[in-house]
Write a structure and sequence with these properties.
The structure holds 2 protein chains of 2 kinds. By secondary structure, chain A is of the alpha/beta class. Chain A has 9 helices and 8 strands. The chains are: A alpha/beta, B alpha+beta.
C-alpha cells in the first residue's frame, strides 16, 4: 500500500502489510511521525515503534502498545487505526494537538512479531513468543508474565507447555527486554497503556499482589471516566479495577513493572467481544472497537498531560 | 499448519465459587488441552473455553456430571478460521 487513502483499516492485515503501512504513515507525516527500531525478536524480526513528536528533547511521553498476545488480532488492527488517528488528528483535534505540542507518543503496534507471523502461517490461535525452551519440546513464553514484577509468583506458570509460561527468568524474551531497555533509557514516560483482548476490561496495577497501588484512588477515577467515555459510543459494557481484584492473580505482568518503575498512569485494556467470537472477532468490528477504545485512550492521555508529575 | 476442525468454544457462567474451582481443575488437566480464552474469575464473568474435538466428550461429561451448564458459542472453530482467511484474501484483492 503506497497510499493511506487506499489502506483498508477495516480489515485484518499481515505483518508485512502493517510494516509497509508504517512506512507510508511516516512518509505522509514526516514532521510528526518517525519509525524507531528498539530491538529484534527471538526470530530476528524488527521491533518497531512509531514515534509521534513535534520536537523538543526527551519530552514527557506516553507509551501505547498492541499485539503482545499474537492471536488477539483485534489489538494489532486497532493499533494501526489508532496510530493513523493520532497522525490525522494532529492539527485538527485541539486536545490531541495540545498533547503532541508538549508530549511525545510512542506506539508499538506489533509487540510480538514472531507470534503474529506464526498466527498467520501455522497456528491462528498462538499466544506466546516463539523462543525455544531448552529441555522442552514446547515453544514460547507468555510475554505478559515475563516482567520483573512479582516474577515467578502464582498467576503464572513454570510449565513451558502452558500458555502462561513465565519463561526462565524475568526479561528473558527480547520482545520484553527491548521495551524494558527503552523505557529505562527514555526515563520520562508518564503513561503506559498496553492493549489486549478480550474480556471488556480496563485494568490498573497490581496483578501480583493484593496490596493496593498507592495511586489506586486516582487510577480508579480515571478508569471510571475512561470506561464511561468508551461506553458512550456504542454501549459496550466494561468493568474496571486492579488486575488482581477484577480478574485474577497475574505475576510478572507488564503494567505492574511499569508502575513500579514510577509510571503512575499504567493501564491495560481487554478489548471487546460483544458477540461470541473471541479471538476471531469479525473484521466488521475493527473500526467500531477502535473508535470506542480511542474515546477511553483520550481520557487517559489527557489526564496524564494535565497531571504531569 | 494446525487445524481446529470440530473444536468448539464453550461458554460457562459459574453459579458459585465451587464451579469456578471445578473449572480451574478442568484447566489443569493437561491431557484435555482446554484453552481458556476467558478465564473463570468471578460469578458474573463468563468463561470461554476452546475444547479440542478429541476432548469434547470428556469435557462435556465433566461439566454435565457436576451440573455446570454451558452453551456452545462456536460449533466448529475451523469453519470460522476458514471464513476469516477467505475475508482476508478477498480484502487483499
Amino acid at each position: 500500500e503506497r497510499s493511506i487513502s487506499t489502506f483498508d483499516f477495516g480489515s485484518y492485515h499481515t505483518m508485512e502489510e502493517i510494516f509497509s503501512w508504517m512506512d507510508t504513515l511516516v512518509e505522509n507525516h514526516p514532521n510528526l511521525v518517525s519509525k524507531l527500531q528498539i530491538g529484534q525478536s527471538f526470530e530476528d524480526r524488527p521491533l518497531y515503534v512509531l514515534k509521534f513528536s513535534t520536537g523538543g528533547s526527551n519530552r514527557s511521553a506516553i507509551w501505547l502498545d498492541t499485539g503482545t498476545h499474537s492471536r488477539e488480532w483485534i489489538t494489532q488492527a486497532i493499533g494501526v487505526w489508532t496510530a493513523n488517528k493520532i497522525a490525522e488528528e494532529y492539527g485538527q483535534d485541539p486536545s490531541i494537538t495540545a498533547i503532541l505540542d508538549s508530549m511525545d507518543i510512542f506506539f508499538e503496534v506489533i509487540v510480538n512479531p514472531d507470534g503474529f507471523a506464526f498466527t498467520h502461517s501455522s497456528n491462528r490461535l498462538w499466544r506466546k513468543t516463539r523462543s525455544l525452551n531448552p529441555g522442552s519440546h514446547c515453544i514460547g513464553v507468555d510475554p505478559n508474565r515475563n516482567w520483573d514484577a512479582g516474577f515467578g509468583g502464582s498467576g503464572s506458570s513454570g510449565n513451558s507447555c502452558s500458555d502462561t509460561y513465565r519463561g526462565p527468568y524475568a526479561n528473558s524474551e527480547p520482545e520484553v527486554k527491548s521495551i524494558v531497555d527503552f523505557v529505562k533509557s527514555h526515563g520520562n514516560i508518564k503513561a503506559f497503556v498496553s492493549i489486549h483482548s478480550y474480556s471488556q476490561l480496563l485494568l490498573y496495577p497490581y496483578g501480583y499482589t493484593t496490596t493496593p497501588a498507592p495511586d489506586q484512588k486516582e487510577l480508579h477515577e480515571i478508569s471510571q471516566k475512561a470506561v464511561a467515555a468508551l461506553e458512550s459510543l456504542y454501549g459496550t459494557k466494561y468493568k474496571y479495577g486492579s488486575i488482581i481484584t477484577t480478574i485474577y492473580k497475574a505475576s510478572g505482568s507488564t503494567i505492574d513493572w511499569t508502575y513500579n518503575q514510577g509510571i503512575k498512569y499504567s493501564f491495560t485494556f481487554e478489548l471487546r467481544d460483544t458477540g461470541r467470537y473471541g479471538f476471531l472477532l469479525p473484521a466488521t468490528q475493527i473500526v467500531p472497537t477502535a473508535e470506542e477504545t480511542w474515546q477511553a485512550l483520550k481520557v487517559i492521555i489527557l489526564h496524564a498531560r494535565d497531571n504531569l508529575y | 499448519k494446525q487445524l481446529f476442525v470440530g473444536d468448539q468454544v464453550l461458554r460457562i457462567t459459574p453459579r458459585d465459587e465451587e464451579q469456578i474451582s471445578l473449572l480451574k481443575v478442568l484447566g489443569e488437566q493437561e491431557d484435555l488441552q482446554v484453552d481458556f480464552w476467558r478465564h473463570p474469575t468471578s460469578l458474573s464473568h463468563p468463561a470461554d473455553l476452546l475444547v479440542p474435538f478429541s476432548s469434547l466428550q470428556e469435557v462435556k461429561s465433566f461439566l454435565e456430571a457436576r451440573n455446570i451448564p454451558y452453551s456452545i458459542i462456536m460449533e466448529d472453530v475451523q469453519k470460522l478460521l476458514d471464513e476469516e482467511q477467505k475475508n482476508m484474501t478477498k480484502s487483499r484483492r
